[in-house]
Amino acid sequence: MTKHVLVVDDEKDIRELLVLTLSRMGIEADTAANCQEAFTRIGERNYDLCLTDMRLPDGDGMQIVDYIAKNSGNTPVAVITAYGSTDNAVAALKAGAFDYLAKPIQLKQLRDLISSALSLPRTSSAAPAESTPRRATTVNKPAPVVALGPQLIGGLAFTNAHGCTALPSFPGLCAVVVHPDFVLETKVARAALAEPFPISAFVQQSDYLASFLLAHFTQDLNLLRYALKDILVEPKRAPLIPGFAEVKAAALQLGAIGASISGAGPSVFAWFEDQSSAKLAAVAMQAAFAAAGLSSNAFLAPVAGRGARVLADE
User: Whole-prediction pTM value?
Assistant: First the structure.
């Protein structure tokens, strides 16, 4: 069955680019240059996807997201934002948008987004006005097998598309992970990274990464202290986690080798030279989250811990 997509943008060139890309994918497209035209189109048919610009002559993309959620809730919406408009992207995702694209539009990203949206399971509805309002949608994709490698190997591991390799670790180091009772959706955390990184920051982070690996091979603890930093992702995601600055400061004040955001957040991790220091810091880190109004759980484990293993039947 042919898919149908609604393209909403006041720039004719952008509309034509999107329609051309869709047609080459075998997808039919209707267009609208403003909110009112979009509302009319949505009332005329059910769409499999809506691509809308954030800024429109008579409103904005958030109104499109809200209108579709109320009147055609089964339709995923992707919002197109201006270069560097991280706040708009985050707001759109929180409002229920399926995903976002940053200008200038990269065709590969556009095609991938379209394919992901059109692969979502659909439920039928008699009429758009009677549809169940749609909120944020998650696309579940099978994780690559290599993602399990570090869990099986244990300790510090290097993993990529080709496999997973164990790396040397410092004996005795203890990791703390404090997880607050706070939901930070991965797609919202990802949206915070919409703006490209300056090359200078990327070069510095590459220095930290190389130093981090060298520190483990040479067992140089001072080099590890220098290297265990994140100047790329942490500054962009930290504002999404209430109390993060205070939690990190609590860890560092109690001797942490380094501390940052675990994965996409909202958990915060820190490494320590010994378990006793880690236990003290875990309490302080939880207290910092409590000061921000969040309860939390703390977990301690050796950095050089063993991997998953089969337990004998009892």
Answer: 0.56
